[in-house]
Structure formats: C-alpha cells, structure tokens
Amino acid sequence: MIERSEVMGQPEPALADHPSAPDPAPVPLSAVDAVARMASPESPVPAEAVPVGGGAAELPVNGYPGGLDTVSNATATPGDLQPYAELGLRDDEYDRIRQILRRRPTQSELAMYSIMWSEHCSYKSSKVHLRQFGEKAPPSDRMLAGIGENAGVIQISEQLAVTFKVESHNHPSFVEPHQGAATGVGGIVRDILAMGARPVAVMDPLRFGAADHPDTARVLPGVVAGIGTYGNSLGLPNIGGEVVFDACYQGNPLVNALCLGVLPVQRLQNKAAAGPGNVVVLLGAKTGRDGIGGVSVLASATFDDGSAQRRPSVQVGDPFMEKLLIEACLELYDAQLVVGIQDLGGAGLTCALTETAAAAGTGMRVWLERVELREASMQPHEILASESQERMLLIVAPEKLDAVLRIAEKWGVPASAIGEVTGAPEGSGPGRLLVTWQGHTVVDVPPGSLVDDGPVYARPMREPADLILLQADRAETLPRPATAEALRETLLRMIASPNLCDKTWVTEQYDRYVLGNTVLAQPEDAGVIRIDERSGLGVAISVDGNGRYTRLDPYHGAKLALAEAYRNVAVTGAKPVAVTDCLNFGSPEDPGVMWQFAEAVRGLADGCAELGIPVTGGNVSFYNQTGAAAIHPTPVVGVLGVLDDVAERVPMGFARTTGNDHDLIFLLGE
Amino acid sequence: MTARIGVVTFPGSLDDRDAARAARIAGAEVVSLWHDDPDLHGVDAVVLPGGFSYGDYLRCGAIARFAPVMGTIAAGARAGLPVLGICNGFQILCEAHLLPGALTRNQHLHFRNRDQVLRIESAGTAWTNAYQPGQEILIPVKNGEGCYVADERTLDELEATGRVVARYLGGNPNGSLRDIAGISNEAGNVVGLMPHPEHAVEALTGPSLDGLGFFTSILKHLAGVPA
Amino acid sequence: MPRVVVDVMLKPEILDPQGQAVANALPRLGVTDVSSVRIGRRIEIEFTGQPDLDRAREIADKLLANPVIEDFSVRVADAGHAGESNP
Amino acid sequence: MPRVVVDVMLKPEILDPQGQAVANALPRLGVTDVSSVRIGRRIEIEFTGQPDLDRAREIADKLLANPVIEDFSVRVADAGHAGESNP
Ligand SMILES: Nc1ncnc2c1ncn2[C@@H]1O[C@H](COP(=O)(O)OP(=O)(O)O)[C@@H](O)[C@H]1O
Predict the structure, then answer these.
(1) Which of A123, A236, C6, C31 could tie C43 with a disulfide, CB 3.0–4.6 Å?
(2) What beta strand segments (E) does chain D contain?
(3) Residues near ligand 1 (Cβ within 6 A)
(4) For A135-156, what is each residue's pLDDT tens digit?
C-alpha cells in the first residue's frame, strides 16, 4: 500500500518563483513578501480540509485523481481534467502532448512535459536567437564540445582540454540565499564533471539591490556564505567574480556561478545512452522531495486547491556528497567503466533520462521503485521531478556494473541500477522511454518529444518606449567637476561607492589556495590557473557584464561585456580562445525585454565573430523581474584564454623595483 | 635513505595533494594513506591535511577521529611518530585528544582566507626545527572554525612548557585565545597548525616560500634520529 | 533565571546532511540500532524579566529559523535543565 | 517512533559568538528585554527498537559532544514533540 499522507497531509504554503518552476514564472513581490508568504501562519489549510482523493486507505493504486495514474488508466479516461495550466503549459502545448501520445498524458508524463517544455529547460523563447552563436562563430579546431553539451570543451595541448561554463541560480538564491547560492555552485560543478573533467576553479558574478537596503543585508551575506561553504568544501579555489549593487536587482539578485574543469582529451565523456542492454545507474544522494514545488499540484484532487499543497522549491546542498561524487566519477572515467553520463540538475531524473536516451536515439526501461528514496511515500511523478542535488546518471555495460558499484561503495556514494537501455521497436526510429512503478506503467513516451520537439517561439519584440529618452540623457550633459576641490569630492565619492569599493569582505570568505595551482586570483582582473605542473601550461578566465550599459544599448552593452572580459584575459598574457555566457533578463513575454535579449545576443555573436572566438556554452535566465519591472538586461560574459607558461603571466600591480630603475607607464588606446 | 611521509586522505580531505606536493618539494618520498586502511605502510611521519573530512558535519574532525587509520596514528603518535595536522588535521588531533583544547567557530562567524604573518614560538619540535625561534613567516590561513580554545590552566601550561608553536601577528584571523596558531604535544612530535604551510612552497602559487620549513624540518628531524 | 528554549529542526522533507553523516558514522562506534539522526539547533534565550513566549516566537520566526526549510517550537525551559551537565 | 533527544550546549565559560550575534541583533527588532542567547545543537536519534538512553548517552559522550567545550543532556522525546511545527 502506498502511504500517501506525507504528500497530502501536510499543507505547504505557496511557493515563490523558481527558474524550473512552471513558467510563466510568478515573480515574488518583494523579499519580505516572498519569505513572509512562505511563513505566513494564515495560509496553510488545516490538514483535514485538504481532500485526499477519497479515503487514502481504500483507494486502489490506479485510482485517479490522487492515486496512481497509469498509462492504461489514462487511455481509459481520456476526458479527465488535468492541471496543465497550473503547470505552466498552454492549451496548444497540452494538445501537442495529446497528439504525440495519442491519449492524454499520465500524471507523471504531464509532470515531465511541463518541466521539459518550460522556458528553463526548452529555451523556447531564446532558441531562435541563440542559433547565431553557432552560425556566426568562427571555425575553431580547438572546440571538442560546444553548445548543446553540458559544457563546452576546448583543447589546450596535445593531451589536455579544459571545460568551463557559467550558469544562474537567481531565483532560489532570493528565496533562500545560502542554500540557493550553494546549490548553484553544486549544479555548475556537476555540468563540468559530466564532461569527464576534474573541476579545478570557480568564479561568481553577483548582482544585488542597493547596498544599504535592509533586504540586501539578508541576501548578500547568505549568498556569499553559500557560495563559500559549497566551493570551499569541494576544494575548489575561487579565482574571481563580481559584486555589483543596483536597485534594479532588489527583488531579483543575480547569482551566477562559473566552473572550470580539466581533462585528458581521451577522457571526454558524452551523455548518449548508447547500446541497448546497457544498465542505467543512478549515482549519488538519495532522492527526496526537493524542488518539486511546481509539480506537487498533481497530488491534489481538485486543481484549484493545488496552491495550498505546493511544496517549497528549495533544495539543500550537501557539498560533502558532491565531493565524493566527483572523486567516484573521476575514478569511474579513468577505469573506463562509463558509456555515457549526465548530471541531474533542474529537471532531475526527467531531464537525465530523456536527454541521454534522445542523444542516442535509444529507448529506456526504468523501474522507478529502484530509485533510493529519502521518503518512502514519494509518488512516481515526484520521483521523476525531484531536484535532489548531488546525483548523476550513468550508462554502464552490464559486465562492468559490479566494478561501478564497488567504486561507488569505496567512496561511500549510494548507487543503484534503475533501468536498462532498449533498442528501437522494430529496429527503426527512436526507442521509447518506459517507466514502471511497482509493476504499473506510468510513463510511455518518445524521449525525443520531450527534449527536441518542445515548443519554439519567435516572441514579439519592440524597442522599449523609454529608450530614446534614456539615450538622450547623455553623459556629456552632466556637470563636470571644475575645480580641484570638486574633483577631490568626486573622487572621494567614487571611492566610497559600493560598486568601486574593496571587495575583500566577500573574497576573504573564499578559499583561493586549495589545489595549489592558483597563479592569479582576487583582486586581479582575471584568474589564472596552472593546468600542467611540468610545462607550466595554464588558463586565464575573466567574467564581466554591465547591466547599465546594456540597458542603454543592449547590442553594444553585450559587446562591451565581451570586450572587457577579453581584455582582462589578454592583459595577463593569455591568448583568449573561448566564451561562455549567462544571459540574465526579465520576462520574454514582455516585447521590450525580448528586444533587449535579441539585441544582446546579436551583439555578443557579432563580437565573437569579430574577435574570432566561439561561444561554447552558457545559460539563459528569464523572468528576472518584480511585478512589471524587469532587471537591467544583464549578459554576463566569461572569456577563457591559454597561457603556454603561467610563469610568464603579467600581474596587475606595478612591479616593485629597487634602485632608480623605475617602470614606465603607458596609456594605450584613444 | 629518503624519508617517507604519509599523507592521509579522508573523505572530504582537500589539501592532501598540496601537502604531498610540499613534502615532495622538500625532498621526501610521499606515501598516500587511506582513511579506511589502518596500515601506515612503514612511513616515518604523517601529515593530516586540510579540508572538510566527512563534510566537517557535527564538529570539524569529530567523525574523522574514528577512521581506522586514526587508531594506528594515535598509537604511533604516543610512541613518538611525528604527526603534523594542518587545519582540519589540527582539528582531528584535538578531537582525538592527541593535542589539548578545541577549535571552534571563528569569532566573526565567517570563513576567512588571507595571507597571515606568524611568529614561530618554538623551534624545538619535529616540524619546526628549521626555523629560528621568533622567526616571522607569511603563510595563508583559511578556515571557518579555527578559533583555538582551552581552559586557562591548559593555556598557561602550554605557554610554560614551550608548546605554543606559532602565534598570529598583525591581527588574529579567528579569535584564537592568546593568538595561538599552532601547538605541540609534550614530546614535540605531534604538531597542530591552523594556517597552511603547504600553500607557501612555490613562488608562483603562494605568498612566500616560508611554509617549506615545516617539511624540511621533519626531514632534518628524521635524519637525526637513527632508524 | 527565566529562560525560553527554541528548538529549530529542518522540515522532515528537507535533506539533513549533518544528521546523515553522523548516522553513517555510528556503525564505526559499534552502534547498529539507530535508524535515523536529525540535527537541529537548540537556542536558549534569557529574558531580563518574565520569559515572554510570544516575543521568543517572533525572534525565532524572524531571526533564528528560516521558515522555508525549518520548523521551530518554543517553550519555557524546565527549571535547571539547561545547566545540567552530563558526563 | 521511539526517539531520543540529545541537547548539546557550549559550556557556560566558552564564548558563543553565534549566540552573541543574535543577541546583538535583537534591539534592531525592538527586543530589549533579552539578556543572553546561547546556541547549541539538538540531535534527534531514532532507534530501530526501544529508545536506549544509555546507548544514546554513550554516543553523545563519544561523538556528539566534545567534552572540552560542551555539555550535553539526554532524554526520551516527548511524544509528538519533534514533528510539531510552529506556527
Ligand atoms: N563575487 C566575487 N567572487 C570572487 N571574486 C570577486 C567577486 N567580486 C569581485 N571579485 C574580485 O575582486 C576583484 C576586484 O573586483 P572589482 O572591484 O569588481 O574589480 P574590477 O572593477 O577590476 O572588475 C577582482 O579580482 C574580482 O575578480
């Protein structure tokens, strides 16, 4: 008998926004509000008042709603109402799903489509623009993996390659700054790990509201402590980042995290679940009810009471487990025990199962009850949607399974074989993903339909009406300090401004020394990491962005961010070779925001073409807005460069010299 | 014969490779020791490296203390085996009662990473004999729970018997009582140190080369002791 | 002294890495009959006057617990309990 | 479920910077009648069989508390207390 009381019995206050929550994402009103809403003593409905789909005890497993919704049940009850709108799916999207399946989706399937077709996973509003990165990119023979993979991989010598990527964890970091930021670091680290690389450094471009706003006093220390705790505990040096204050980020702080990894070229991994008969292994932390806020609406009997049952989308990170996961995966790679691998991120098992299968064109058979759970009462759709951290999905040849489980055990990481790769039905076309739960089929879908056939929108775009006014207010018209005294005043004001002041309070909380390869870090313009101790081969990375420039002119603002990062890398003596980006914007449903986005992408793609370096990967974060007010469009750009010998790096400060042999100072450029 | 220095890896150890690198630069042969293996593989000295063993959950070092390898190390240490605990290693040594006192949350409640000046107070231990007494060195400190505490009597006794090995100068980074950065046991073979000498052994990656002395000290010490 | 105790525990569905690490370590101490360990905070608040439960509840809600991931409970301390040491 | 609670508090003579930070923040919330705040750990241990106080005391002594800086006390949980959420 399935114990359901934990799903239903404990009413949860409504959740605040989350990037992987169904979109259009509801945006929290204000800091205090969002938190207050979650804590509000008034909101929870008393347990008895929540209908539990009849007496839970007598309900047959395939009872619906509230019970287990199987494929046969879905076929038999085509007219049942489903909460697709609450899950963020549009009418036409829901119709598409029914066409694909030739029936209504089961609860589990509906959860999966709603997640995979969300903005966060499907890039449905950004796809048409992001294509330019590929189309305009200069040819690069260094790029071993690019956009579409977990992270771009760049070859830097005969034997070695590096991989890097920047990602956002903005909304969770507002709701729960410490854990939100911490799990942001955890997520990007697993992307890097999935490519076959050992993570070796992190960076953290951050944006907060006004420095003196009371809510900044809640968000900033929490975010910094979260990034510090997670990164420090993994043993990853933090080699740079940004701290920017602007009132536009008050209700929407930006927490972006970049990770750098290193791999021998032949250790490059991919996510394809190739080879029917191979075993699907879930490695890492047990699966719990983390971040399933959105889909918990499925547990409700009537959909309008769904909000009362939503669970918080907050995940708690366990950096210790992640550290063990890293070591276990690297040992598995080196022993050549892995056919394919994918990290579990925002969309949990749903994303990992469908993406690995779709990448290989194979099918998959999964026994969901084999997933190790933190709470036994979890329902299939919850298991499929769970965003529990510190997990990876492996595809393993059956004869290697024992060796894989042994290595997992050596590192104390739970591992279980949960499924099997299957072939195409009649040897033609892609296979199907078949998921059962205690003998009942709850999912039967073509995996590609979730991954590749999601909706794509060319959203309306319009230049914001106020842009002309903004641009007319030119810097040239501002009063200038005319006297020495006024100049002194201006200088003092600038030095005291939060955006220019010393960032040591933040950067001291990060370990910069661990691993012993940090050649340059804060307060340098770029971080430099030694990759090969013998040859001195290394890389330099800088991340930069300027929302105010981009607000005034998105095309040039994006180009400027790229140029700044490029310069910061170049001045260390490194040759810039690759770009990653995190595009933080407001709602794509706002034509003004969509225009900003399109212009920024065009600018970044053009800039990359002009500089001759490709975008290798990145991330889009939409819905960064409070009510109708969007943040400044904030593309954050990371540039990676190569140094043949890090001993030749050029640090930022003037060199100390002895005697009269002083350095000369030049100003280059106009 | 080159000295063999064992570096223990616990789940969650982070600075183990750095400790190994430093020992190697000093001229030692490095042997990796594993938390789950009680065998010390005939090493002449042991380094317990920095990191977050077992996530540093509960209390730093509290769980690591019960690792099988610690049983052997504790017995060895009592019989004179040189042991250096750095940061998390220091915490483990205190939890294992091989050193007195405890390391608690930094008084300012933050993790702090900075380059720190130390004064070597005792050059009489197995791990500090390459320094001059009173010598000032610059090495990184980085911890969240590095505030050394012990009762007054213990502190007085440590001072009186020359067992305060190093002290913070120019600002105490964590609130440690009497600015204590490192201590030793009575025999001087077991040393615990909060800052990280292994991160100051190469000009390219550290603030100085001042950390190397801890590793050359142990080689000197072992060379002087007939095997 | 009038004293209020606030117990703050992670909500049951939230991962508790600390508790898990301790539970995993117990077999090493020869303890095999423990099925779960959860670790939270115990906070003792001493008032200058009468212990004020409402006040304590407000402090807990605003400062001591994060309601997104934690539950708390508030009560007046059993006399003498807190000082009680147990070797 | 049989459950034992172990409360671990810093010894009175050991400085508690976290508690102090909370105490210092209280006046900003308008709370002026608190004289001290101490923050410790509350550990809930669930046994597979009968809650075993001696066993719990042994675990606390060896692992959960550091006798150099901490005191602890052990008791069987008030029924239903742990799950109790507030508000
Ligand atoms: N969040 C952060 N994490 C890590 N390093 C940071 C962070 N914010 C700023 N830094 C680092 O601090 C230094 C100074 O930053 P900043 O004042 O923004 O310099 P700049 O204006 O030259 O970019 C740089 O090395 C930068 O990388």
Answers:
(1) C6
(2) 3-10, 34-47, 70-76
(3) A 204, 206, 238, 240-243, 503, 506-507, 522-525
(4) 998 888 899 988 888 899 999 9
Nearest CA in chain A to B21: A516
CA A522 to centroid of ligand 1, rounded, Å: 6
CA distance A475 to A473: 7
Active site residue B87: yes
Q: Which residues contact A480 (CB under 8 A, 6 or more apart)?
A: none
Residues A198-246: pLDDT tens digits?
999 999 999 999 999 999 999 999 999 999 999 999 999 999 999 999 9
Q: Does C67 touch chain A (CB under 8 A)?
A: yes
Chain B positions in Cβ-Cβ contact with residue D15 (cut-off 8 Å): 104, 107, 149, 175
In sequence order, the 6+-apart residues with CB closer than 8 A to the CB of D39 are C41, C42, C43, C44, D16, D18, D19, D22
**Does residue A551 contact residue A469 with C-beta atoms inside 8 Å?**
no
Asked if B68 contacts B38 with a C-beta cutoff of 8 angstroms, the reply is yes
Cβ distance of C22 and B63 shorter than 8 Å:
yes
Closest approach atom of ligand 1 to CA A206: 1
Neighbouring subunits of B (3+ Cβ pairs under 8 A) = A, C, D
One-letter identity of residue B101: G
- C41 neighbourhood in chain B, CB within 8 Å: none
Domains detected in chain D: 3-76 (3.30.1280.10)
Is the separation of the CB atoms in B192 and B61 below 8 Å? no
**pLDDT, tens digit, for every residue of A503-553?**
999 999 999 999 999 999 999 999 999 999 999 999 999 999 999 999 999
Which of A502, A522, A571 to probe ligand 1 with, by most ligand atoms within 8 A of CB?
A: A522
A530 and chain B in contact, CB less than 8 A: yes
Decide if D41 touches C, using CB distance below 8 A: yes
> Which atom of ligand 1 is closest in space to residue A524's alpha carbon?
25
Q: How many CB atoms lie within 10 A of CB D11?
A: 15
Give the distance between the most distant pair of CA atoms in chain D: 47
Is there a contact between C20 and A318 if contact means CB atoms under 8 Å apart? yes
Whole-structure pTM over 0.95, yes or no? no
Taking domain B4-223, whether its CATH number is 3.40.50.880 is answered by yes
Contact D39, D16 (CB under 8 A): yes
Ligand 1 centre to CA of A248 (Å) is 20
Mean pLDDT check: name the lowest of A152-161, B163-172, B212-221, C41-50.
Answer: C41-50
Q: Output the CA torsion sign for D45, D50, D54, D59.
A: negative
Q: Do D15 and B106 touch (CB under 8 A)?
A: no
Number of alpha carbons in the 13 Å side-chain half-sphere of residue B9: 16
Among A507, A529, A541, which residue has the most ligand 1 atoms within 8 Å of its CB, making it the best to mutate?
A507
B94: annotated active-site residue: no
**Angle at the Cα of A321 from the Cα atoms of A293 and B139, rounded to 5 degrees:** 125
- Distances in Å between the Cα of D52 and the Cα atoms of C20, D22, D57, D60, D62 are 19, 35, 9, 12, 16
Domain layout of chain B by residue ranges? 4-223
- Interface contacts (B, D; CB < 8 Å): 34
| DSSP string across A378-415 | --HHHHHH---SSEEEEEE-GGGHHHHHHHHHHTT--E
> What does the alpha-carbon distance between residue A500 and residue A186 come to, in Å, rounded to a whole number?
29
CA–CA separation, A448 and A433 (whole Å): 9
The per-residue DSSP string of A51-106 comes to --SS-TTT--TT-SSSS---HHHHHH-TT----TTTTT--HHHHHHHHHHHTSPPP
Ligand 1 centre distance from Cα of residue A317 (Å): 25
Helix (H) or strand (E) holding A365: strand A363-367
Distance CA B91, CA B111 (A): 15
